[in-house]
């Protein structure tokens, strides 16, 4: 007899609610295709109600006017609750999203808790008012207002936390729209926030199809900022929809990140880092290092070592701690990986390993082999081939050969993406020289840090962490500059500086 699936509500104005018309979406475990839960299938009316609740909470409620230390206290309480319920959240993420239990325990839940810890730490330290010098000018930082945050399916808990925590730390209110088929951990997170004492309307969550619910949210009156994480194609649609409503956007889009393996690299270290960057979570990460640009002098040895390491990765039940790779989020995503692999081979690439799904019945325990795809390494890839240019969001790594550092940089910079990169070399000066020429927002040397689990206590407020965190949270604040009007004791006395004589004497 089939067990009854759990019912998950949305949260609007602090209340657990169904969709306005009672519609539901069925969600399924990627690993087995078993019915997992039912979530509300929200529509335009649900979006309207959620935005109205967030708008009221921002315009009339206590949250934006609350001292930052009080907001920080609640954020820390959320981090502690997440840590206390880590196993529950980890298992929910595995069953809903296909992540391995090791990754959910070791990265997703700790990373989500860290988002709340960091945001609390930041809120207590960043001044809301900064004094300038000339003319008595000063800056007041204010929250952006109502933030509509659209979260993708690949890392729902982690990315929802990194949308919610900094936004509310800055005094904003939010409406969160998770992916329709990977939303359970986000719904559970919002419930946890309310249980920690979050005022009604500060964080609302609406579930439903992106083409309906997401589109309505992007264009909704009353939204001040749309924050979106996802593909370039959907990001373009979000940008256009928000622009038609006169709403600002913060977009985090796709990637085709390179790892450059120079001739003097420690190959064992490089192989480990490249495999990690390409195949963690089946490559379903925007910063995944899905291109390896390898110096010709070490190319063959590197590929041999890489294939040997990748061949040891174990596919299996994501709830088994021994599993390295579980299913992709859906059969459709596995088909995408297959389609790109076949396209790469048709364009001249060679298959070094992987290249398909396990045979039906090959995986034990009733696992759905069609949702799995073996980690794949393609060699002899041309720099303009589709597998070297397009984001696949699957476990497919393209290896490209470079004659020297100059060509490696040119190949690495030869896509439209600019997200991240890695450089592997035994010579720090050489590595830095290459890294500084890469068109990437973030470059690691002899590392590829897809997961950053630093905490405020361990990081100690270093300048690198501070800059990264401040840039993240400044997305949710607005700068207001006031010129003049300061008392004489506050600095330079305010005085007439406008050249009024230019008009009428």
Question: Can you tell me about this structure?
Answer:
- With 505 residues, the protein is of the alpha/beta class.
- 39% of the residues lie in helices and 18% in strands.
- It has 16 helices and 20 strands.
- It has a seven-stranded mixed β-sheet, with helices on both faces. Strands 10-9-8-11-12 form a five-stranded parallel β-sheet, sandwiched between helices. It has a three-stranded mixed β-sheet with strand order 1-5-4, with no helix packed on it.
- A hairpin with a 6-residue loop joins strand 4 (24-28) and strand 5.
- The chain is globular.
Q: Keywords for this structure?
A:
alpha/beta; five-stranded parallel beta sheet; single chain; seven-stranded mixed beta sheet
Shape: globular
Beta percentage is 15-25%
Terminal residue distance: 91 Å
Number of helices: 16
Task: Note the topology.
Elements: E1 6-7, E2 10-12, E3 15-17, E4 24-28, E5 35-40, H1 44-59, H2 68-84, H3 86-97, H4 101-125, E6 129-131, E7 138-143, E8 146-150, H5 156-169, E9 173-177, H6 184-195, E10 203-205, H7 210-218, E11 225-229, H8 232-244, E12 248-252, E13 258-261, H9 267-279, E14 291-295, H10 299-311, H11 331-346, E15 350-353, E16 376-379, H12 386-389, E17 396-402, H13 405-412, E18 420-424, H14 428-435, E19 442-445, H15 456-459, H16 463-474, E20 477-482
Parallel strand pairs: 1-5, 8-9, 8-11, 9-10, 11-12, 13-14, 13-18, 14-17, 16-17, 18-19
Antiparallel strand pairs: 2-3, 4-5, 6-7, 7-20, 15-16
């Amino acid at each position: 007899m089939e067990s009854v699936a759990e019912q998950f509500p949305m949260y609007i104005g602090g209340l657990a609610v169904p969709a306005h018309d009672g519609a539901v979406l069925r969600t399924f475990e990627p690993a087995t295709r078993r019915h997992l839960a039912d979530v509300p299938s929200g529509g335009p009316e649900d979006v309207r109600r959620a935005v109205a609740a967030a708008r009221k909470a921002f315009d009339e409620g206590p949250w934006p006017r609350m001292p930052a230390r009080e907001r920080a206290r609640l954020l820390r309480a959320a981090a502690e609750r997440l840590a206390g319920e880590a196993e529950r959240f980890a298992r929910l993420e595995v069953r809903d999203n296909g992540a391995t239990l090791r990754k959910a325990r070791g990265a997703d839940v700790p990373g989500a808790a860290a988002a709340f810890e960091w945001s609390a730490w930041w809120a207590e330290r960043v001044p809301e008012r900064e004094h300038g010098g000339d003319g008595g000018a000063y800056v007041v930082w204010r929250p952006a207002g109502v933030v509509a945050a659209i979260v993708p399916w690949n890392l729902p808990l982690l990315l929802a936390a990194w949308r919610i925590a900094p936004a509310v730390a800055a005094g904003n209110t939010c409406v969160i729209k998770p992916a329709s088929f990977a939303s359970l951990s986000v719904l559970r997170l919002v419930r946890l926030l309310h249980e920690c004492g979050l005022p009604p309307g500060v964080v609302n969550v609406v579930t439903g199809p992106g083409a309906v619910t997401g589109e309505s949210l992007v264009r909704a009156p009353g939204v001040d900022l749309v924050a979106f994480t996802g593909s370039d194609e959907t990001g373009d649609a979000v940008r256009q929809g928000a622009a038609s409503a006169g709403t600002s956007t913060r977009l985090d889009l796709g990637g085709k990140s390179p790892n450059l393996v120079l001739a003097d690299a420690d190959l064992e270290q490089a192989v480990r880092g490249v495999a990690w960057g390409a195949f963690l979570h089946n490559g379903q990460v925007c910063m995944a290092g899905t291109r390896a640009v390898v110096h010709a002098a070490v190319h063959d040895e590197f590929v041999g070592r890489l294939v040997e390491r990748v061949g040891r990765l174990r596919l299996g039940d994501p709830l088994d701690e021994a599993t390295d790779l579980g299913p992709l989020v859906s059969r459709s995503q596995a088909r995408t990986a297959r389609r790109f692999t076949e396209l790469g081979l048709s364009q001249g690439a060679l298959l070094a390993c992987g290249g398909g799904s396990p045979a039906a019945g090959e995986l034990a325990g009733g696992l759905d082999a069609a949702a799995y795809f073996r980690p794949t390494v393609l060699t002899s890839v041309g720099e303009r081939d589709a597998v070297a240019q397009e984001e696949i969001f699957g476990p497919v790594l393209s290896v490209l050969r470079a004659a020297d550092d100059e060509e490696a940089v040119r190949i690495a910079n030869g896509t439209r993406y600019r997200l991240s990169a890695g450089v592997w070399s035994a010579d720090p000066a050489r590595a830095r020289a290459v890294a500084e020429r890469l068109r990437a927002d973030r470059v690691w040397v002899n590392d590829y840090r897809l997961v950053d689990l630093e905490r405020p206590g361990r990081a100690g407020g270093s300048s690198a962490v501070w800059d990264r965190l401040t840039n993240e949270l400044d997305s949710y604040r607005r700068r207001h500059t006031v010129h003049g009007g300061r008392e004489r004791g506050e600095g330079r006395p305010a005085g007439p500086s406008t050249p009024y004589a230019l008009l009428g004497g």
